[in-house]
Amino acid sequence: MTEEEWAAQVLQISSRLSDRKALGQEILAEPELINYSLKFIQEGSEKLATKAAYGLDIALRSDIKILKPYRSSFLNVLQENKIETVSRIFSKICELFTAEFRKSENLSKAEREQILTKCFDWLIGDEKVAVKVFAMQSIYNLSETESWIPGELKAQLELQFDRSSAAFQSRAKALLKKLKS
Q1: Which positions ≥6 away from 98 have C-beta within 8 Å?
Q2: What value does the mean pLDDT take over residues 147-174?
Q3: CA-CA distances (angstroms) from residue 54 to 5, 102, 116?
Q4: What is the mean pLDDT of residues 92-114?
Q5: Are 75 and 114 in contact (CB under 8 A)?
Q6: Cβ-proximal residues to 59 (8 Å cutoff; 6+ apart), any chain
Q7: What is d(CA 174, CA 147) in angstroms, rounded to the nearest whole number?
Q8: 0.85 surpassed by pTM
């Protein structure tokens, strides 16, 4: 499928789950569509980027391993994204990716640093709770790769705990318990 054909197909979907699932199935059948989707997100047209991210979300929730050959592109787009809906989807992808590839031999130090930087930015910044929750879990997933991570994560969770939502507190409480053991 060409980039133009994929863009036309992506633009035709609505935000209904059935449409997002159909797009995700296309990506699972043709993982090279990940490159086109990432390009659409990087170019920043909110409508096309958001719909492309919907397809990525469904596909990668089904099989996060298909992202591995495209991780460099993903990490570059991750750093540049400014679209709120895409941030939520990317934060979930980071959580899935770090859970699958958390061991140091699967991710380079530079790749871990890119993910950690973005996730700490999300956790510290003025983001919606879903983004923060996925970010804190991603950071925790990488906590065994660097000695400084547990202390920094714990400090951020404790700092934000009292003034955060119940969803934030629930995940933070679970992670703080793990960090103490």
Answers
A1: 115, 137, 138, 141, 142
A2: 96
A3: 17, 24, 23
A4: 89
A5: yes
A6: 23, 24, 25, 27, 28, 31, 34, 66
A7: 20
A8: yes
